[in-house]
Amino acid sequence: MNETIHAHFRHVGGYKFDITFDELPSTRIMSDEPAPTGASEGASAAMLLSSAVGHCLSSSLLFCLEKSRVRTTDLKTDVELQMARNPKGRWRVEEIKVKMKPTVSNVDRKKLERCKGIFEDFCIVSASVREGIKIDVDVLKD
Fold it and tell me: How far, in Å, CA of 132 to CA of 30, rounded?
């Protein structure tokens, strides 16, 4: 795993951006703001955040179950991200609710309970969001 990830955003019109990563050169993601600001032609930043949290938690739970030798036949994760206006009237992410439903055999229920108690601590994204993330922004001259 890389300790540093490099994401690059290229403006393609309106509020739409083509996103690429040095670590996965053949992967592209299209982002856009929802209407009426944007054209809703790609995932919004809030959607990308909710999917990052959901994917990280799903992977962490699955990893714990696999290490515990639990055969998981299915794992469904639903993420609901709530936004609200702050006192200045700016939209902010207020809460992220995650519901996970792993399907395991009855014999593995005890191992599932063990994983439920520890897996969140291994999710880089959700743990970082909970703790707050330092963001350093520098707007450069052209």
Answer: 26
CA distance 79 to 131: 19
Say what the pLDDT of residue 142 is.
Answer: 84
Cβ neighbours around 43 below 10 Å, total: 17
Question: What residues are paired with 10 via a beta bridge?
Answer: 18
pTM for this predicted structure:
0.91
Calpha distance 23→38 (Å, rounded):
28
Sign of CA dihedral 134, 138, 139, 142: negative
- What count of other Cβ atoms lies within 10 Å of the Cβ of residue 65? 22
pLDDT in tens, 12-54: 999 999 999 999 999 999 999 999 999 999 999 999 999 999 9
> What does the alpha-carbon distance between residue 8 and residue 54 come to, in Å, rounded to a whole number?
22
CA 4 to chain centre: 17
DSSP code for 121: G
User: Is 58 within 8 Å of 75 (Cβ atoms)?
Assistant: yes
Could you tell me which of 97, 61, 95 has the C-alpha nearest to residue 78? 97
Q: Which of 4, 49, 47, 40 is nearest to 22 (CA)?
A: 4
